[in-house]
Amino acid sequence: MGNEIIIGERLRQARLAKNISIDELQQKTKIQKRYLEAIEKGDFEALPGTYYVRSFIRQYAQVVDEDGDFLVDIYDEKASFEPEGKRAEPETVQGSRKALHEGKTRDKKTRDYLPVALLGIIAFMIVGVIAYVAWQDRNSDPVIGQTATSMEVDGSVTTEQDSSTNEESSTSSQTETSSSEEDEMEIAMTDSTQSQATIQVTDAEEPLELEFTAKNGRAWVGVSVNGDYSLQETLEAGQNESTTIPEGTENFVVTLGASANIDLKANDKEVDFDDPDYEALQKNLNFEVTYQD
C-alpha cells in the first residue's frame, strides 16, 4: 500500500510542478481521466490489471519527466525509495540570530569598557583617601566629627540599599510582565476537503519539529519542503518518526496515507486535522507558518 501511494504522489507532484492539468495529461497520454486520478491516489486496484498499471505508470512518467522504469521497479518491489543512509537531522540553533548577535555585542562592549571602569574606580579611591586626610586635618573634635560622619554614612548606605531594592523589584516585575505577554504558538485548520486541508501555525519557535505516531494500523507519511521530500516513511502501529523543518520555512506539505492512523504534533503541540464531514483517507496538509520575532 505504501509504495502505491508514494508513486501516485510523486507523479502528481511532478505534474503540478509542470503546471499540467488532468485533462491535458489525458490528451497527452491517451489514458482515461479516471485511471489517471486513481494512479495519483495510489488506488491501482481500480486499473484494468497489472500490465496496464506498469504501462500507465511509464506513460504518465514520460510526460512529467519522471523515470518510469524506476517507478515500475518500485511497484514490483525490485527497488526502494529508501535512501542508503538516514538523512542527518538539521542542526538545532539555540536562540535566534538576532539574540546571538546582541549577546556577542554586549560581551565586546564589556571587554572594551572594563579597563576604563577599573581606572575610574582607582581614581575615585585615591580622591576619597585625599579628602579623608584633609578632613581629619581640619576637624578640631575628632570624636564628635567621627560620630556625625558615621551617621551620615549609615544614612547614605540605607538610602542606596533602598534604591537597589526598588530597582530589583522593578526589574523582576518587568521580567514577569514580559514573560506573561510572550505569544504562545497556535495551530488551527482553516479549511478542509476530502484530500486537502490548510493548517495555519502562528508564533512558532524555530526550529519547528514535527512528530508522527502511528496508531491502530499501518500508515505512510511524507514531508515535502520546496518540492523535495525531507521525510518518507511507512510507519507500523505504535511506531513514531520525527523531522525538523529548516529555519525560515513558511510553507511545506505533509502527506498522510490512511490519515486516521496518524497522530501529528508540531513542537509538542497537537495538530488537529480530523474533519467529521469526510472519511479519513489520504490527505495533504498544507502548512502556513509564521514565527516569533
TrEMBL record:
Residues 158-178 have a biased composition (Low complexity). It comes from the Bacteria. Residues 82-106, 150-197 are annotated as: Disordered. Residues 216-275 form the Cytoskeleton protein RodZ-like C-terminal domain. The keyword Cytoplasm does not apply. The chain crosses the membrane at residues 113-135. The keyword Ubl conjugation does not apply. Keywords: Membrane, Transmembrane, Transmembrane helix. One of its GO terms (molecular function) is DNA binding. Pfam families: HTH_25, RodZ_C. This is Cytoskeleton protein RodZ-like C-terminal domain-containing protein. It comes from Tetragenococcus halophilus (strain DSM 20338 / JCM 20259 / NCIMB 9735 / NBRC 12172) (Pediococcus halophilus).
